[in-house]
TrEMBL record:
One Pfam family in the UniProt entry: Hydrolase
Record-level Gene Ontology MF annotations: hydrolase activity
Electron transport keyword on record: no
Keywords per UniProt: Hydrolase
Originating organism: Vogesella aquatica
The protein's name: HAD family hydrolase
PANTHER family reported for this sequence: PTHR47478, PYRIMIDINE 5'-NUCLEOTIDASE YJJG (PTHR47478:SF1)
Keyword Electron transport: no
Span of the signal peptide: none
Matching InterPro entries: HAD-like_sf, HAD-SF_hydro_IA, HAD_sf, PGP-like_dom2, Pyrimidine_5'-ntase_YjjG
Coiled coil: none
Alphabetical list of NCBIfam families matching this protein: HAD-SF-IA-v1, HAD-SF-IA-v3
Upper classification of the organism: Bacteria, Pseudomonadati, Pseudomonadota, Betaproteobacteria, Neisseriales
């Protein structure tokens, strides 16, 4: 089947979110003298993020509440909301100053410019807009869907249906491109959509490896 549009994830697909996160965690360790190695702290932060981001996706807490819950888990002690907000500032500074696109992103963006493209992310709308502006990718992607402006989160079929409608292409002719095995790839498989799994641990897992599928 001909691929007529792309529905593309952002974090750890176009942008190296793991890199930015690691710098954010390093800033937390330096500011608060926490008893972790950087690798151990990053692993703990990853586990806490998975736990509390799911709560945010389900609407059980706000973006700020899940942020503070992660911090309390890393610190292993209670913090008031004001204490948590202040303690989180080094992370925010380290994280935001290290947003960057992967080395293959520019070439991928150029090579797929002839196709309708919609960004589909479970990240918070304001933060994702800031990332795109910071990295200059906002000029290439007129459409960005998140739970805040769509009302649905991946892997819910509805967010992909809205994305396909924005692209003006039938759902089954849209390729999902992303790194998440459940939110991106699992959703595409359930919906019978073509997909490409970005996994840079594999030699053939970068963005450019999907280009032959689009020819």
């Amino acid at each position: 089947m001909r691929i007529a549009a792309l529905l593309i994830d952002i974090d750890d697909t176009l942008l190296d979110d793991a890199h930015a996160t690691r710098h954010g965690v390093a800033a937390l360790l330096a500011a608060h003298q926490l008893p972790y190695t950087l690798d151990d702290a990053c692993q703990c932060w990853h586990t806490l993020t998975q736990q509390h981001w799911l709560r945010f996706e389900r609407g059980e807490c706000s973006i700020i509440e899940q942020r503070h819950a992660r911090l309390r888990g890393l610190f292993q002690r209670e913090l008031s909301e004001s204490e948590a907000a202040q303690a989180f500032e080094p992370y925010i500074a380290g994280y935001r100053s290290n947003w960057k696109a992967f080395d293959d992103t520019a070439a991928f963006v150029a090579a797929t410019a002839h196709l309708p493209r919609v960004l589909v992310s479970n990240g918070h709308l304001d933060i994702q807009q800031r990332k795109l502006a910071f990295t200059g990718l906002d000029a290439h992607f007129p459409h960005l869907l998140t739970p805040q402006n769509c009302g649905h989160a991946k892997p819910d079929a509805a967010i992909f249906e809205v994305a396909a409608a924005l692209a003006g292409v039938p759902l089954q002719q849209c390729m999902v491109i992303g790194d998440d095995a459940v939110r991106d790839i699992g959703a595409a498989q359930t919906l019978g959509m073509p997909y490409f799994h970005v996994d840079r641990r594999r030699a053939d897992g970068g963005l450019l490896a999907c280009l032959p599928l689009l020819a």
